[in-house]
Design goal:
The structure is a single chain. The protein has 2 domains: 196 residues, no CATH class; 74 residues, Alpha-Beta Plaits. 63% of the residues lie in helices and 10% in strands. It is built from 10 helices and 4 strands, in the order ααααααααβαββαβ. The radius of gyration is 24 Å and the shape is elongated.
Length: 287
């Protein structure tokens, strides 16, 4: 196996593992906590739960799969094959895991159950969203609307859930709907936390008289790229060569030690950044 094929193999395997782990956590949060308490989550999984509570017939996972079939057919027209295939795998993981899980987590208080279910589903979403796919459902509709009519994804989720919870008033107790709203709020917060924690990078600017030597050491010892930015000192009027680089959180202290070990008068500026695409970091998700 040559290097390119090997990298492609591990990339596919990594994405499948993210989808499997994230999808399984989502399924546990739904089947083991939300369903025993009669909650609904947001999105298409929430719609499938509402249909399950009202009509029964199929298990909740099968309802979720049935609702996704027309969406994937639509996705064949508008979305990339890679994204759709990964999303198909993620959807199947959620659907089958929901129906195969044999246990309930014994949480008796509705409030604690909403918090626990939201945390579990949100963690799962935060994990699978690091992959190049999704778990289907409202994600597919939101992306199609965004590509076709430039509708913001967050805006679609808001309106979809508004309609979903309004419809639920006809079938569920108000208390259960309010607990479900709390659950979806926790999902959004935990998802954002997981995305920011694992996506966070440090953008570093270094001003030094030894810019060339520092850039060479960054490339050699940290195996990170570096870019020169040309500027001019406002007070001195002298031309300066700034070094710009991006590192992972755990590399920041190593970079700091490297810079000040070479130039104790260097100027070191650090900024948080949450979306870095390119070699050594994240790959762009093509929808």
């Amino acid at each position: 196996m040559n290097k390119i094929n090997e990298n492609r193999f591990y990339s596919v395997l990594w994405n499948l593992l993210l989808l499997a782990a994230g999808g399984s956590l989502v399924a546990i949060g739904i089947k083991s906590i939300a369903i025993p308490h009669g909650f609904i989550s947001g999105g298409f999984s929430g719609l499938s739960l509402l249909i399950y509570y009202v009509f029964g017939g199929l298990p909740p996972g099968m309802w979720n799969m049935a609702l996704n079939i027309p969406l994937f057919i639509l996705g064949l027209i508008f979305l990339s094959r890679r994204f759709l295939l990964y999303s198909l795998f993620g959807m199947l993981v959620v659907a089958f895991t929901i129906d195969w899980i044999p246990f309930q987590i014994p949480i008796h208080d509705h409030l604690l159950a909403a918090l626990a279910s939201g945390a579990c589903i949100g963690a799962g979403a935060g994990i699978y969203l690091h992959s190049l796919g999704s778990v289907g459902g409202s994600d597919i509709i939101a992306i199609i609307l965004n590509k076709k009519w430039n509708m913001r994804i967050g805006q679609f989720f808001f309106y979809f859930n508004l309609v979903l919870f309004s419809l639920s008033l006809a079938f569920l107790d108000l208390d259960l709907i309010l607990y479900s709203l709390l659950l979806t709020f926790v999902i959004s917060q935990v998802t954002d936390y997981f995305l920011s924690v694992f996506n966070q990078r440090k953008l570093v600017f270094i001003i030094s008289e030894m810019s060339d030597a520092i850039a060479a050491e960054i490339i050699k010892k940290l195996q990170r790229g570096a870019t020169f930015l040309h500027g001019q000192g406002a007070y001195s009027g002298r031309d300066k060569k700034l070094v710009m680089t991006v590192v992972n959180n755990y590399q920041l202290k190593r970079l700091e030690a490297l810079v000040f070990g070479m130039d104790d008068k260097a100027f070191f500026i650090t900024e948080n950044t949450f979306s870095v695409l390119g070699s050594g970091f994240s790959r762009r998700k093509v929808y």
